[in-house]
């Protein structure tokens, strides 16, 4: 098994105020040729994107939408024509509404196998139609993060939670997050099994899953905080990684969550264990962990209380301008650390920067500005403008700028990296 790093750049804690919707977003549906050309000029050799299940199969099962099929074929072909390798995610928080309405999505144990069958059938279409050109498949994007915001906190789709945790009309924050991840893991195993059985030998590709993660350090030098930090990792990352590697959840999760954490049968455990060729680790920000055993005494506990921790975040200044110096500094430091881990023996094969363009974010709408390229939403043509990070990253990819002293001098001399990507 190997690892792919997905870096979320310049993230910060902010108030939630979702504006707009993602119907058009950056309109890559119509502008994919322009965007792929821009990727090539930037120097990218790989691009990670999601296929929308509903765009390809509108009702979740049944006939394939020919326009959706054509779009993804066009995008994949365009990427390959520029020497850019497509990395495809099959599920990114977007279960078709028809299936959500029919059987309650990912939480119903009695009917999850219908969902599993539907998801596997959808994946089969993707492998059959695109697998001759796609070598890297991610089954589910951040199952742990998806269920936290959607089934525990109730701030993302499908917006389920206990009323005591948030203003949700339905849900159970104590049980549903565990149920949903359990079923998503079973669905992943089913899809991975299909790929390995019917496609991998012919298409020579890889299939895996991505995990939502933070960097975490003990708040103090105490033994209690050190143990709490490991416990936090077990609950956050081990929740998904342990079943993929060992076939079962971490012992501390089973101890603290008890019967609320579903159990795998022996057959399910064998299906899941070793099902991922790679694990994608999606990093956000760093937190400091403090032991909090009193949370285990709460009458109604969710995932967060079960960790028996408190965490404290380091917020970074919001930087959405074209002169995103902090993002450049982050990129330089982060890529350097990844290189160090590879030199020290980590089986890490690559990384992605989130994101290429400013896009519609699930929680923050258009308030967040994570792209290397700014998208002017006041322009009818949604024109793209390179940020400082795009200039620096392009130079880095082309071997032109890797010195740390140049990074830290940017704030004093921003023009030092100002060149026109369009002229290359």
Automatic annotation (TrEMBL):
<dbReference type="InterPro" id="IPR017853">
    <property type="entry name" value="GH"/>
</dbReference>
<dbReference type="InterPro" id="IPR001360">
    <property type="entry name" value="Glyco_hydro_1"/>
</dbReference>
<dbReference type="GO" id="GO:0008422">
    <property type="term" value="F:beta-glucosidase activity"/>
</dbReference>
<comment type="similarity">
    <text>Belongs to the glycosyl hydrolase 1 family.</text>
</comment>
<dbReference type="GO" id="GO:0005975">
    <property type="term" value="P:carbohydrate metabolic process"/>
</dbReference>
<protein>
    <recommendedName>
        <fullName>Thioglucosidase</fullName>
    </recommendedName>
</protein>
<dbReference type="Pfam" id="PF00232">
    <property type="entry name" value="Glyco_hydro_1"/>
</dbReference>
């Amino acid at each position: 098994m190997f690892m792919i790093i997905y870096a979320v750049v310049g993230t910060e804690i902010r108030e939630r105020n979702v504006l707009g919707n993602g119907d058009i977003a950056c309109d890559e549906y119509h502008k994919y040729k322009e965007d792929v050309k821009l990727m090539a000029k930037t120097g990218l050799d790989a691009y990670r994107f999601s296929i929308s299940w509903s765009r390809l199969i509108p009702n979740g099962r049944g006939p394939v939408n020919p326009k959706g099929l054509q779009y993804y074929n066009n995008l994949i072909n365009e990427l390959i024509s520029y020497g850019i390798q497509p990395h495809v995610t099959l599920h990114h928080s977007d279960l078709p509404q028809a299936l959500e309405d029919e059987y309650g999505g990912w939480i119903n144990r009695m009917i999850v196998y219908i969902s599993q069958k539907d998801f596997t059938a959808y994946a089969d279409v993707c492998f059959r139609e695109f697998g001759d050109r796609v070598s890297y498949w991610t089954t589910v994007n951040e199952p742990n993060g998806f269920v936290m915001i959607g089934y525990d906190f109730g701030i993302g789709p499908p917006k389920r939670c206990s009323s005591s945790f948030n203003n949700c009309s339905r849900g159970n924050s104590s049980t549903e997050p565990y149920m949903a991840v359990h079923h998503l893991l079973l669905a992943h195993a089913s899809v991975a099994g299909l790929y390995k059985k019917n496609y991998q030998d012919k298409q020579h590709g890889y299939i895996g899953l991505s995990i939502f993660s933070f960097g975490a350090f003990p708040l103090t030098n105490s033994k209690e905080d050190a143990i709490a930090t490991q416990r936090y990792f077990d609950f956050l990352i081990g929740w998904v990684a342990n079943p993929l590697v060992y076939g079962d959840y971490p012992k501390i999760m089973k101890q603290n969550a008890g019967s609320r954490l579903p159990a795998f049968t022996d057959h399910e455990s064998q299906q899941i264990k070793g099902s991922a060729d790679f694990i994608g680790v999606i990093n956000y920000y760093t937190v400091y962990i403090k032991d909090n055993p009193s949370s285990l005494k709460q009458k109604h506990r969710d995932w967060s209380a079960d960790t028996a921790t408190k965490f404290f975040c380091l917020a970074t200044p919001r930087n959405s301008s074209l002169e995103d110096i902090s993002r450049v500094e982050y990129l330089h430091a982060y890529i350097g650390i990844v290189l160090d881990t590879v030199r020290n023996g980590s089986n890490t094969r690559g990384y992605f920067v989130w994101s290429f363009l400013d896009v519609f974010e699930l929680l923050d709408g258009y308030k967040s500005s994570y792209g290397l390229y700014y998208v002017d939403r006041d322009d009818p043509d949604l024109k793209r403008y390179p940020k400082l990070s795009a200039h620096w990253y392009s130079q880095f990819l082309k071997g032109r700028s890797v010195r740390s002293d140049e990074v830290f001098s940017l704030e004093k001399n921003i023009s030092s990296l100002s060149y026109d990507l369009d002229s290359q």
